[in-house]
RNA sequence: GCGGGUAUGGUGAAAUUGGUAGACACGCCAGACUUAGGAUCUGGUGCCGCAAGGUGUGAAGGUUCGAGUCCUUUUACCCGCACCA
């Protein structure tokens, strides 16, 4: 009987689907285990072999845990809102909902292209997903709950005293009772104090405006990253090197009224939580960088002749007597106010010039020093000396307060700035407050100095100086200790169509939440997916997009009267909204009332193992932690952290194949002859090349017309390609489709090969050529159970060697799965099968456990072997074999014998010999005598069971 | 600049507390069988050398009887952050 993967795999995939083999129950006696993959965005291009890598790894763990007796939740779904579907809609006029559905379910698109569909592609690989819990973030029955969470955020504030989010009702009660004097909240700056009486006297509108300053999601005019090409704002994590992550378009700062998420309230908890979770150090470090905690002080400087103060954040308050000048960001709000008439023209010109430069230019150009004196002076809080105030674009508006106290003697940038403008109007000589030489460079260290010229700080160091100065600042009311975070509140509005609509309408420009019982607010139909002519977001094109407060329904815009019918929000939510809570939805995916039932959430608790790409380090993974913490505060999530353990799979790279065209001809020269010609490199379809890098020239001629008539300069009839390792992409013709691999070699081979390629977390190139190794392994495995006539399994007692081979494998595979070292498991399977083949093993007592061992990796063949062993039903929950050390006990060891650390020969000795006995035998050995040539060793090192080393 | 990671044959990679470097595969070489196939099987394959032997884990030092593994210095590449006050 031959191994036919196509029959076996189709059969078992159908069996699993029909029998709901992998449907998880929310009630079980077994311990639970939750394995989650980062759900995919269903793009039209379909999956390539890089995509399933993490899914295969998580599937192995899920299947292994089932064998270990766990109730396993291993769900899958789609992150189906997003930009590409919308861009495609703009180009083709097809509704994003239609193209998204087709990308998931497959079909034939309007241009006649067959789309396989993610689901069909995934099914062919034999994942043990519980598809009954599938979610799609763009489905109204899903985003209904995303809208609900948004409302919860709106109805919450962050109480620093309890250090958690609370219902906005508790804040209103406090305002009613005591005004805002005792409120310790994370909120907007510049909130004026009010009493209980004031609060009660405010109009409802005024009250609403005040509350917006406290809510965890709030509407505010903020500086946002505006991307004109995409027609939308972007969050900080959607910008890479000053241009949009998607498309690489320029991004400028712009003031807009937008929804924001007060993630800054959670900065410290997001930072501290990293210590409790088992994530890679690099991701944790990325998040720490992104949060950017720095400890220091806030210091206020009064501006002379103005009723104004400049607040600065500094990590070095101990250097306050070294302040030589101050610098404001050009965007700083005080700039126009304090600039003197004489400096006005210069300052305005500088501000304008800075505004014109894109973020990118400003970032690229860090070497050029520029700035202008405002003519104004601030007053030193202690010495009362006047300090000139400058503006300069080395100070960023977005960090701290957008202003710095410049201490050139202790800061490289201040030093460079001071020297650049040395001698010009408003730039005094550098004050040195360190007992160090600063004639060549600033002294930036936090140690190794004593403060001088610093009044009451003289003689102190960094630590004691900082402590002292903060006390003194507090005494005179000019400052206090302060922890600053780089993490900014996250902009939550997008000027896009294909996203969650906000459950929000506007009365007199003030946002009102729609009651949760009327959710979902379903995305309206529009004629065009582009912004409107007057610059409104795409939802501005909707004609039925108004909220009727009487019928509680979305009605035609014509009915807007601003008394009963009001306009709805035109922005939509960003891509990360739906993915920031989806792991909880899987726990109870069909709940129509709540986002998930309390009991289900309590049962599944949090994700035990999360596998996905590291590109989400500061986006999805940070926002998800934020929402989870918020939901925990409000009693909806059971744990502080959503993902206990995280593994980042590496990227699978393409191995492009290159042919060399002789310049100006239609001739192509084989790789090793190319130096004899002047050539240019052309990439060809990597699937036309065999394991020896040789092209099938007939196939190449039929591939694209360019090669039809081409001539090939070969090496004895063979044409070899060059190779280049680069990202898997259509434009390099190096994409390998998992469907093709499943077709030719089978899903089990694909799964094994993806694991065999190397360590999961490492990025590595794909080369289909190597797959014959694992394909051959599966055939050999099969032949242990079958010959040409069928089953060969016998019930005889296996030999000790067979047991040894099996138990070595049990041990290795168990350890490997626990350590996520899947590549070495596959090697061990090969070793075991090679050994059993040598031993002609066809014994049930060996082959039965072997089938179970293999099953997490190659589930289809394992099921088939299991039924060949005479069992009914699936192998999926059969207990995993247990390692027994007794089968590995050895009585002899092949000792390496080294002389001065160099291994010369080996000698087989019983393991129960003492060191002295070993020495005697070794010394008597003629090979030892030959090595020593009459010398006597100074020292003989014998580690029983390990090595023998003779020195001297 | 700061932080994290990687470096081993022609290729992908193995190597428990420091203990026979290169397991397992791909490729290559030789052979067997054959219904001639991109099947299967056997043997070989780090490098130099006919061999004995020498040499070898990015580089240079060090610790040790013994280092891919530990320590110091250094180079290259990848990732994250970055005029962060």
TrEMBL record:
<keyword id="KW-0436">Ligase</keyword>
<dbReference type="InterPro" id="IPR025709">
    <property type="entry name" value="Leu_tRNA-synth_edit"/>
</dbReference>
<keyword id="KW-0067">ATP-binding</keyword>
<keyword id="KW-0963">Cytoplasm</keyword>
<comment type="similarity">
    <text>Belongs to the class-I aminoacyl-tRNA synthetase family.</text>
</comment>
<protein>
    <recommendedName>
        <fullName>Leucine--tRNA ligase</fullName>
        <ecNumber>6.1.1.4</ecNumber>
    </recommendedName>
</protein>
<dbReference type="InterPro" id="IPR002302">
    <property type="entry name" value="Leu-tRNA-ligase"/>
</dbReference>
<dbReference type="InterPro" id="IPR009080">
    <property type="entry name" value="tRNAsynth_Ia_anticodon-bd"/>
</dbReference>
<feature type="domain" description="Leucyl-tRNA synthetase editing">
    <location>
        <begin position="288"/>
        <end position="474"/>
    </location>
</feature>
<dbReference type="InterPro" id="IPR001412">
    <property type="entry name" value="aa-tRNA-synth_I_CS"/>
</dbReference>
<keyword id="KW-0648">Protein biosynthesis</keyword>
<keyword id="KW-0030">Aminoacyl-tRNA synthetase</keyword>
<dbReference type="Pfam" id="PF13603">
    <property type="entry name" value="tRNA-synt_1_2"/>
</dbReference>
<dbReference type="Pfam" id="PF00133">
    <property type="entry name" value="tRNA-synt_1"/>
</dbReference>
<feature type="binding site">
    <location>
        <position position="730"/>
    </location>
    <ligand>
        <name>ATP</name>
    </ligand>
</feature>
<feature type="domain" description="Aminoacyl-tRNA synthetase class Ia">
    <location>
        <begin position="11"/>
        <end position="155"/>
    </location>
</feature>
<dbReference type="Pfam" id="PF08264">
    <property type="entry name" value="Anticodon_1"/>
</dbReference>
<dbReference type="InterPro" id="IPR009008">
    <property type="entry name" value="Val/Leu/Ile-tRNA-synth_edit"/>
</dbReference>
<feature type="domain" description="Methionyl/Valyl/Leucyl/Isoleucyl-tRNA synthetase anticodon-binding">
    <location>
        <begin position="802"/>
        <end position="914"/>
    </location>
</feature>
<dbReference type="GO" id="GO:0004823">
    <property type="term" value="F:leucine-tRNA ligase activity"/>
</dbReference>
<dbReference type="InterPro" id="IPR014729">
    <property type="entry name" value="Rossmann-like_a/b/a_fold"/>
</dbReference>
<dbReference type="InterPro" id="IPR013155">
    <property type="entry name" value="M/V/L/I-tRNA-synth_anticd-bd"/>
</dbReference>
<keyword id="KW-0547">Nucleotide-binding</keyword>
<dbReference type="InterPro" id="IPR002300">
    <property type="entry name" value="aa-tRNA-synth_Ia"/>
</dbReference>
């Amino acid at each position: 009987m031959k191994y036919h993967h196509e029959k076996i795999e189709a059969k078992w995939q159908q069996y699993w689907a029909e029998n709901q083999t992998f449907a998880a129950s929310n009630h079980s006696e077994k311990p639970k285990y939750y394995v989650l993959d980062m759900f995919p965005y269903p793009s039209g291009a379909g999956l390539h072999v890089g995509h399933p890598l993490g899914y295969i790894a998580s599937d192995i763990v899920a299947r292994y845990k089932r064998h270990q007796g766990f109730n396993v939740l291993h769900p899958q779904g789609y992150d189906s809102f997003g930009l590409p579907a919308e861009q495609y809609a703009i180009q083709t006029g097809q509704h994003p909902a239609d193209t998204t559905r087709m990308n998931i379910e497959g079909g034939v698109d309007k241009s006649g292209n067959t789309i396989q569909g993610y689901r069909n592609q995934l099914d062919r690989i034999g994942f043990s997903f519980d598809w009954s819990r599938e979610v799609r973030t763009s489905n109204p029955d899903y985003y209904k709950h995303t809208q609900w969470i948004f409302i919860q955020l709106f109805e919450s504030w962050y109480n620093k005293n309890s250090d958690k989010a609370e219902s906005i009702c508790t804040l209103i009660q406090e305002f009613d009772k005591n005004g805002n004097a005792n409120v310790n909240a994370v909120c907007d700056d510049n909130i004026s104090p009010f009493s209980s009486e004031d609060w009660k006297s405010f109009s409802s509108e005024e009250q609403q405006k005040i509350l917006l300053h406290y809510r965890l999601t709030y509407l505010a005019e903020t500086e946002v990253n505006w991307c004109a090409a995409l027609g939308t704002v972007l969050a900080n994590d959607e910008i890479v090197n000053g241009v949009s992550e998607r498309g690489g378009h320029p991004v400028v700062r712009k003031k807009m009224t937008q929804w924001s998420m007060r993630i800054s309230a959670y900065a410290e908890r997001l930072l501290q939580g990293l210590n409790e979770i088992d994530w890679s150090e690099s991701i944790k470090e990325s998040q720490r960088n992104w949060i950017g905690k720095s400890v220091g002080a806030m210091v206020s400087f009064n501006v002379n002749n103005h009723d104004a103060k400049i607040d600065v954040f500094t990590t070095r308050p101990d250097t306050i007597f070294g302040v030589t000048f101050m610098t404001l960001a050009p965007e700083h709000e005080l700039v126009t106010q304090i600039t003197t008439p004489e400096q006005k023209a210069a300052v305005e010109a500088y501000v304008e010039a800075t505004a014109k430069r894109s973020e990118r230019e400003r970032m690229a150009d860090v070497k050029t020093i520029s700035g202008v004196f405002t003519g104004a002076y601030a007053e030193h809080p202690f010495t009362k000396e006047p300090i000139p105030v400058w503006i300069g674009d080395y100070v960023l508006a977005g960090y701290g307060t957008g202003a710095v106290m410049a201490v050139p003697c202790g800061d490289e940038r201040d030093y460079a700035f001071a020297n650049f403008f040395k001698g010009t109007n408003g730039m005094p000589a550098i004050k040195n407050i360190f007992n160090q030489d600063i004639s060549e460079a600033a002294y930036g260290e936090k140690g190794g100095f004593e403060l001088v010229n610093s009044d009451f700080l003289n003689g102190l160091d960094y630590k004691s100086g900082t402590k002292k100065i903060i006390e003194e600042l507090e005494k005179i009311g000019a400052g206090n200790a302060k922890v600053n975070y780089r993490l900014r509140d996250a902009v939550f509005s997008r000027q896009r169509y294909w996203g969650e609509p906000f459950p929000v309408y506007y009365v007199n420009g003030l946002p009102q939440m729609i009651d949760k019982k009327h959710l979902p607010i379903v995305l309206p139909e529009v004629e065009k997916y582009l912004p409107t002519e007057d610059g409104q977001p795409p939802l501005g094109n909707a004609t039925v997009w108004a909220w009727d407060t009487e019928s509680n329904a979305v009605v035609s815009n014509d009915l807007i009267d601003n008394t009963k019918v009001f306009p709805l929000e035109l922005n939509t939510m960003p891509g990360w909204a739906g993915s920031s809570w989806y792991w909880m939805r899987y726990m109870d995916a069909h709940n129509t009332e709540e986002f998930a039932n309390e009991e289900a959430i309590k049962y599944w608790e949090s994700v035990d193992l999360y596998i996905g790409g590291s590109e989400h380090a500061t986006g999805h993974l940070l926002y998800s932690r934020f929402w989870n913490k918020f939901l925990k505060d409000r009693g909806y999530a059971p744990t502080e952290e959503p993902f206990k353990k995280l593994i980042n799979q590496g990227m699978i790279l393409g191995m492009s194949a290159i042919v060399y065209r002789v310049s100006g001809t239609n001739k192509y020269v084989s790789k090793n002859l190319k130096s004899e010609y002047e050539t240019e490199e052309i990439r060809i379809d990597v699937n036309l090349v065999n394991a020896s890098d040789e092209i099938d020239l007939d196939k190449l001629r039929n591939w694209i017309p360019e090669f039809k008539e081409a001539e090939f300069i070969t090496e004895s009839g063979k044409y070899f390609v060059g190779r280049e390792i680069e990202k898997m992409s259509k434009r390099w013709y190096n994409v390998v489709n998992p469907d093709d691999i499943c077709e030719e070699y089978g899903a089990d081979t694909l799964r094994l090969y993806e694991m065999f390629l190397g360590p999961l977390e490492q990025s590595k190139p794909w080369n289909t050529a190597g797959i014959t190794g694992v394909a051959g392994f599966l055939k050999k495995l099969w032949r242990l159970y079958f010959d040409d006539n069928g089953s060969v399994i016998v019930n005889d007692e296996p030999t000790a060697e067979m047991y040894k081979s099996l138990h070595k494998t049990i041990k290795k595979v168990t350890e490997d799965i626990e350590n996520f070292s899947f590549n070495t498991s596959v090697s061990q399977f090969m070793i075991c099968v090679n050994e059993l083949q040598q031993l002609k093993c066809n014994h049930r007592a060996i082959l039965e456990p072997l089938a179970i061992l293999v099953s997490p990796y190659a589930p289809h063949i394992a099921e088939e072997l299991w039924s060949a062993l005479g069992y009914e039903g699936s192998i999926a929950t059969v207990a995993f074999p247990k390692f027994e050390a007794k089968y590995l006990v050895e009585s002899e060891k092949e000792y390496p014998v080294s002389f001065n650390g160099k291994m010369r020969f080996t000698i087989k000795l019983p393991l129960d010999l003492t060191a002295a006995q070993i020495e005697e035998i070794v010394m008597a050995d003629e090979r030892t005598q030959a090595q020593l040539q009459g010398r006597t060793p100074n020292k003989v090192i014998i580690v029983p069971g390990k090595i023998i080393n003779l020195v001297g």
